[in-house]
Amino acid sequence: MRALSDIVAEYMELAIPHIDFDRDRTAPNYQLAPESFYRLLAHIVLEDCYAANGSEILRWLSDDDVDVPAPSTLHQYAQKFDVDEHADRFFDATCALLERHGLFPAEPVHLGFDITKVSWYGSVDTDEDGDPTDEEARIKSQLKDNTTWFWPLAVLSITAPDRNYVLGFKPAPAADKYDEVLDDMLEAVTDRFDLELGRIYLDSGLGNTKTIDICEKHGLNWLSQGKMNGKREELAKTLPPATPGGQKTSNSDQTPVRSTSSPVPSTRRLLR
């Protein structure tokens, strides 16, 4: 446990300069270290609870010499940045970690792209039909009840057999903007790192023509679950018959057989 704590402390030391809250550490009223805020945030995520409950429980679980921020203090500092600014700060922190020797996975680096709906509870301005007036910022959930709202966030990750990293996240206000969000995130990654990208895993709802075009723009092979039609079928037809996930035909009429779970490489490179 001590060795693990030392590793976490080392990683936090690399990340904190990028995700600090721009406070003056020499000020007389400086008390809470940045690590205390992220300890509380991690606890809230693990317990899936409100900030008030998380702060109370963490204080009860912690030793007397461990500082636990009050919920109001956490809100005060978190609100100093908007969501995009938080995303940029955490991307810089992740880059600092990955630039440390031994943390970056072997090339080619494979990625995953998904849309995560983060629960958000509170008052929401709605129109006469009960729909949110700020459609660009939040969408109504169809998964739970009508009082549950979500922040839709696009998440880009590194996927490897021995390690997974979240490279970054960005608000994804509308489904027809997912391709633009992915393009921005891939641009940030390729601008920051000189690496060989392999394939990108897309959720079934993201395997559309616009998103696939972005994958091809960045030279990425892509894999997605879905029907063998449209862009998937066009790309599959360019592959040799024996290619896994490629075009499948019957011996009788050479009619394409629909595949519901097919990894389809891009036309630039076959899957490794």
Name the beta content range.
15-25%
SS element count, helices? 8
Low-pLDDT residue spans:
140-144, 243-272
- Can you give the mean pLDDT? 76
Element-by-element helix/strand order = HHHHHEEEEHEHEH
Q: What coarse outline follows from CA principal-axis ratios?
A: globular
Give the strand tally: 6
Describe the structure.
With 272 residues, the protein is α/β, with parallel strands linked by helices. The protein has a domain at 106-124 and 131-272: Nucleotidyltransferase, domain 5 (2-Layer Sandwich), CATH 3.30.420. The protein is 36% helix and 16% strand. It has helices spanning 2-19, 34-47, 51-61, 71-78, 83-98, 178-192, 209-217, 230-236, and strands at 109-120, 139-140, 149-159, 164-171, 197-202, 221-224. Strands 1, 2, 3, 4, 5 and 6 form a 6-stranded mixed beta sheet that branches. A hairpin with a 4-residue loop joins strand 3 (149-159) and strand 4 (164-171). The chain starts with a helix and ends in a 36-residue tail after the last helix.
